[in-house]
Specification:
There is one protein chain. The protein is mostly helical. The chain has one domain. Helix content is 66%, strand content 0%. The chain has helices spanning 12-26, 28-34, 41-59. The radius of gyration is 19 Å and the shape is elongated. It starts with 11 loop residues before the first helix and ends with a helix.
């Protein structure tokens, strides 16, 4: 969980900028995108098979 405590005389813009930087460092956005929608078991299998295929294809390139 990312937490930002605003400074005494810090503006909302700089606080928001710091928060966004911390969230991107923590890797929350990719995880959020991954869990945005429910994925059926069939869709999950297809996604994993496609990733495996891409990995194999990339591995055997010269």
């Amino acid at each position: 969980m990312t937490q930002i405590i605003p400074g005494e005389n810090e503006g909302i813009e700089s606080t928001l900028r710091r928060f966004k930087r911390e969230v991107s460092k923590a890797g929350i956005f990719p995880d959020m995108r991954k869990h945005r929608h429910f994925e059926t078991p069939i869709e999950k299998r297809k996604r994993k098979a496609l990733a495996k295929h891409k990995q194999r294809k990339k591995q055997f390139r010269y």
